[in-house]
Amino acid sequence: MKNPIELMNPEVVAIKQQEIFKFNALAKSNPGVINMTVGEPNFPTPDHIKLAAIKAIEENDTRYTVPEGDHELLRAAAKYLHDKYDLNYDPTTEMITTLGVTEGVFSTLNAVLSAGDEILIPAPCYTIYGPDSGFDRATPVYLDTSKSEFKVTPEQLNEILSTHPKIKAFLFNYPTNPTGVSYTRPELEKLADVLRKYDIFVISDEIYSELTYKFKHYSLAKLLPDQTILLNGLSKSHSMTGWRIGIACGPKAIIAEINKIHELATTAVSTISQAAATEAYKNGFDDTKPMLDEYRKRRDILLSGLEKLDFYCPIPDGAFYLFAKIPEGLNQDDVAMAKDLLNTEGLAILPGSFFGEGGAGHLRLSYAASMDSINGAIEKLGDYVKEHKNA
Ligand code: PLP
């Protein structure tokens, strides 16, 4: 049998996920290492959500369930999306639950793409996007955002869409992993004006929507309801990465197609996780607030520490990442520097080039880490810079 990796477009096989795992594993296996690689909240899931899961177990809610997800959960999620983002989805036909946004991306791309299609992906980007596209034998076309402060501009978007007729979908993510940039409503309106002119799907991964620091998140789905598949979930907002809860929303016909793939791949999301998610969507409207306040403090300290060392970061409006440009006078090879930091300073951070085009010469630091780790990281980076600048 053919290895599925061999079936993929060779360009796409350059998957960096394994390399990220290697960094993580090295950091974890050495307790002395400060680990700033991890893209998940370091807070416990709120108690009321955990109790709902315990109740589901006690009540034997432990059997197969409908693939689209429990209808009470979907109704609660629809109300939550309405109250938070003024979105209006019919929970019976326009929404399904997925195993996190990860499966949401996979099933959506399977539903939307065919062999030979192209998919437009702003880069640097979340590492699964390219390989996921490759599974459908589609080709990612990367839009390098590094020359525009890591934001897609309407001009770039129009130029690329007008010259690539094979593009079937635009896979967008904001607040953005790995750069932390986000988009204001006027910026999104300009992008939507371009996207509306093309017969393409917009897949909008808004998993970090509740982690914004300066302006309230505005959903692209609000501007392009007929074209957009919105992917969101509870991993980042409610510190629920291990529960695997995602939501895919969009026009009825495409959601039905995504649900078919989702059913083939998963049967359904765990009933226990769904019970927890129902509670989160019903009674966890403000759960993110204390975590967000803490992330903001960490971000400000890390940002100021990095700036003092001459690292430049694009404005981090959301998520929990800083994407720092390596200062002049240091070797610009981000992979070599990240390896060196790990081996000599005991500091694990990820090279920007792991996130694809436009990422070289940068380092990604996750501040979903304790304040001690953040202060320790600044100190270690300071030592490194002192020793290596203009060496
Ligand atoms: N989308 C982006 C942009 C991410 O950064 C991540 C995780 O880091 C995910 C999706 C995964 O989300 P989930 O836990 O819902 O699968």
UniProtKB/TrEMBL annotation:
Source superkingdom: Bacteria
Domain Aminotransferase class I/classII large: 32-372
SUPFAM superfamilies, sorted: PLP-dependent transferases
Keyword Zinc belongs to the record: no
Gene3D superfamilies the record matches: Aspartate Aminotransferase, domain 1, Type I PLP-dependent aspartate aminotransferase-like (Major domain)
Record keywords: Aminotransferase, Pyridoxal phosphate, Transferase
CDD domains in alphabetical order: AAT_like
Cofactor: pyridoxal 5'-phosphate
Enzyme class, first EC level, given as a word: transferase
Enzyme Commission code(s) on record: 2.6.1.-
Any one GO molecular-function label of the UniProt entry: transaminase activity
Transferase is among the record's keywords: yes
Family per similarity comment: Belongs to the class-I pyridoxal-phosphate-dependent aminotransferase family.
Protein name, as recorded: Aminotransferase
Organism per entry: Companilactobacillus mishanensis
Lineage: Bacteria, Bacillati, Bacillota, Bacilli, Lactobacillales
